[in-house]
Amino acid sequence: MDMNNPIIDNIANPHELERMYREEPDAFKQSFSYAWEQNPDSQVLGVWYQRLYFKEKILTEKTSLFQKDFISMGILAILAGITTRILFHFADDNTIAPINIVIGVLLLIAIYFVTNNVPSKKVLYTLASSFLISGIFLNLLPVEWTDSIILAYIHLPIFLWVVVGLAFTGNEYGNGSTRLAYLKFNGELAILYACMAISGMLLTGLTMQLFKFVGMDISEFYFENVVIFGAAAMTLVATYLVSRNLKLAKNIAPYIAKIFSPLVLVTLLVYLITVIVVGKNPFLDRDFLLSFNGVLLAVLAVTIFSITESSKDEKKNISDYINFALIVLALIVDSVALSAIVFRLSSYGISPNRLAVLGVNILIWANLIWIMLSYLRFLQNKTGPLAIQDAVTKYLPIYGLWAAFVTFTFPLFFK
């Protein structure tokens, strides 16, 4: 044993080993190689070996995964662009419904998750049957714009969004933290896709102008063959980048949540006060009732986004009180909307639109109550933030079930 090796000399002195590493990390690594060869059974040196070389092992693993993910993403992105362009052609001729484009893109996103994290056969069969049944059923419907069919077109993406969540969570679909990760993924995906879309619009504008300089109008060709292809392909690219832990989206999402929550709170307060002063009545004004529900959905989305991006730290901050205030205001809006919908049902009778709006408002009202009570207990130091996150994540399948119910039953019972 070489007594001149400083690491061997201080193998029983963790404080000295840490000091040597911090002062001269390169020299420490050189000395460590010899010390590790001479003492391969040392638990102390075993810990230091993992500390020094663990990152290099992870980097190698990530490189191989990167290649696999990148290839699958590239193939699926090209497929998304091609299938969307083909489906758009038939939808433009009114041969098929435009909703097929949404089904195609969501299916390819689900395939991306499944190929990179293969779940059990039970999950695979559920995914396959959900997309297959949805595609067949929607294409058996007449390509008409009746209320019930429009409702089916609106609710199908919600149902399939929950199905894609099953592909994302895989065998961990019952795990609350995995469901929360899916919600975070959606927020980060929306941010990244918006940035990419803005860049695409700038490129489109520049391209149009350049061709106009030479007397050519390529707007129709460019939109049908480049914009549509690119918009679909970008969903897979953005999915890949977010799932690969892109720092841009992950770093900016919490700040957006913190900025938008107070702005939405102030806007909603001003809006409600204005409604009272102006004397708008959602019980009699149908368009105003629809806008009221639109406000409710926007507030719910912002609140859930803010909750999913908040830290798991037990310590409360101003964002929690803002979120709680938003939830209370959203409950007030939803309660008024529910009262107006019930009034319109009793006054004007049953219609598919009124039933669909009633159902979703009841679901949102129940979810908001659950979130509000969880937040109240958290603010009173009776529970931790996980209770709030459970109130959000455990309710997701209920939205999916309601969307499936509207999609598959309303066109059969209403014309």
Give an account of the 3D structure.
- By secondary structure, the chain is an all-alpha fold.
- It is 83% helix and 0% strand.
- It contains 15 helices and no strands.
- The longest helix is centred in the first third of the chain and has 50 residues, at 43-92.
- The chain is globular, with a radius of gyration of 27 Å.
- The protein starts with 5 loop residues before the first helix and ends with a helix.
Q: Which helices and strands occur, and which strands form pairs?
A:
Layout lengths: L5 H4 L4 H10 L1 H14 L4 H50 L6 H18 L4 H20 L6 H23 L6 H38 L5 H25 L3 H32 L7 H24 L8 H31 L3 H28 L5 H9 L2 H18 L2
In short:
It is built from 15 helices and no strands.
Number of helices: 15
Task: List segments where confidence is low: pLDDT < 50 over at least 5 consecutive residues.
Answer: 57-61
Given helix and strand content, the structural type is mainly alpha
Distance between the termini: 89 Å
| H-E string | HHHHHHHHHHHHHHH
* Mean pLDDT across all amino acids: 82
The beta-strand count equals 0
Gyration radius, in Å: 27 Å
Indicate the percent of residues in helices: over 70%
Shape descriptor: globular
By oligomeric state, this entry counts as: single chain
The biggest beta sheet is recorded as: none
Q: In what range is the share of β-strand residues?
A: under 5%
Keywords:
single chain; 415 residues; mainly alpha; 15 helices; globular
